[in-house]
Write a structure and sequence with these properties.
Helices cover 42% and strands 14% of the residues. By secondary structure, the chain is α/β, with parallel strands linked by helices.
Length: 434
């Protein structure tokens, strides 16, 4: 679903290239592997381009890629250079679409499983990975998120998410509070916190993907309780976001009225630092920021709870989703090496360290590390039936709501203006994807 520092970061991890090596055209990797295994012959050199919009995990990816480079050299006698491009989440989708449309596809790129796989697959941008070894290691609960309607696995899931909002468990415990189950209860919690001079919410709207988080929570809650056909209706140009007006704006207004100042100047990293420092008791954010939060305050005790969107407690639900997933371009000239890397991401031994370092949920049978407390807490809601699958809202609509809610917070758009923009964005999506 992520969440990033500003700008585009590029990392170049370059293995030693042997003198006299020619560039790889993607057709002789198997020969290179045979030569490498016999200990004779000239090593092949391959430049692998990766596009992953998670710059906060730059160090973790750098380290893991470096180990892959060593392994590929040892196993197949292939010298691999990796160009890792890490744009911000706000810019990544548009940059990637432009690259794919102009036949400049990275060999490996990250996409959002729920939001982007359908349209990317239809456009022919995703390699069929069904027969790759990693597929057999995926958990049964995770595999459907990266599987197309015709049964093909087209990505490797990195992040599976159980989320709502984050709350400071210490602040809640010290003030005798528990996560509210209705909007009225949430209002009472905010009043109790303010009475103790504690700011209820951290606000961080500099990056548009953050305020848009209220949308899938609101739509998911309403689809589970009152309007199960909402997405289907929108896909047929028969629905409208006016049906979701109260679910979206009642809680969003409550958060904004009880939050930290200068929200449009605070991005994800600064928001994480503010939450870690106790400057707000709650944060509209998912646990994908756990690593960043704990880097600021390793002792912070925080939890995950479902966000109330109305006074119907049945609509207060944890969102279940698979977001960041790795795909391979069908046009890659280095497809064998790209596939080797994807399979290494779920390596039986090395994978645990990578996923644990980034504090991701387990996605594979090879993941044996102990679950984190906030994951365990979210799972209790899921087991109690208090969850909903992330609604399949087009990424272009989520982009629009992010910008719209930024403008709404700044007083530049009305509620009705935002809802009309969302309806228009979905209709535009339908025209292109019918």
């Amino acid at each position: 679903m992520n969440k990033m520092t500003k700008g585009v970061l590029c990392t170049f991890l370059t293995a030693t290239l042997l003198a006299g090596c020619g560039s790889n055209n993607g057709t002789n990797n198997s020969n290179a592997a045979e030569e490498g295994n016999t200990g004779s012959g000239t090593a092949k050199s391959v430049t692998l381009k990766m596009f992953i919009a998670q710059p906060r995990f730059k160090e973790q990816y750098d380290n893991y890629i470096a180990e892959f480079v060593k392994k590929e050299k040892a196993d197949k006698n292939i010298d691999v250079s990796v160009q890792l491009e890490m744009p911000t989440a706000d810019n990544a989708s548009q940059i990637l679409k432009t690259r794919l449309a102009s036949n400049d596809a990275p060999d490996i790129f990250a996409i959002h499983a729920v939001n982007e796989i359908p349209s990317y697959y239809k456009a022919g941008y995703l390699e069929d990975l069904t027969d790759q070894p990693f597929v057999g290691k995926l958990l049964d609960s995770v595999k459907p998120s990266v599987t197309t309607t015709d049964g093909k696995v087209v990505a490797l899931p990195l992040e599976t998410l159980s989320w709502g909002y984050l709350y400071n468990k210490t602040i809640f415990a010290e003030n005798g509070l528990t996560p509210p189950t209705t909007l009225t209860e949430m209002k009472a919690v905010t009043e109790k916190l303010k009475a103790k001079n504690i700011t209820p919410f951290v606000l961080s709207y500099k990056e548009s993907w953050i305020p848009q988080l209220v949308l899938p929570l609101a739509v998911g809650g309403m689809m589970k309780t009152a309007d199960p056909e909402f997405v289907n209706k929108m896909n047929k140009d028969e629905g409208s976001f006016t049906e979701m007006k109260s679910a979206i704006f009642d809680v969003f207004d409550l958060i904004n009225a009880n939050g930290t100042a200068k929200a449009t100047e605070v991005g994800g990293d600064d928001g994480a630092a503010a939450f870690a420092a106790g400057k707000g008791a709650m944060w509209l954010m998912g646990p994908w920021y756990a690593e960043t939060i704990l880097k600021s305050n390793p002792d912070l005790d925080f939890g995950v709870a479902p966000l109330p969107i109305s006074d119907n407690a049945d609509a207060t639900l944890i969102n279940l989703s698979a977001s960041t997933s790795l795909a391979v371009s069908p046009t890659s000239k280095n497809k064998e090496v790209a596939l080797d890397f994807l399979n290494y991401v779920l390596d039986d031994q090395a994978s645990n360290g990578l996923f644990q370092a980034m504090k991701f949920n387990p996605v594979s049978t090879v993941h044996t590390y102990e679950s984190y407390p906030w994951i365990t807490e979210a799972t209790t809601y899921v087991k109690a039936g208090k969850s909903v699958q992330d609604p399949a809202i087009p990424q272009s609509v989520k982009d629009e709501v992010g910008k719209g809610l930024q403008a709404y917070y700044a007083g530049q758009m009305s509620q009705d203006d935002v809802l009309k923009a969302l309806d228009k964005a979905w209709k535009s999506y339908n025209k292109v994807n019918k």
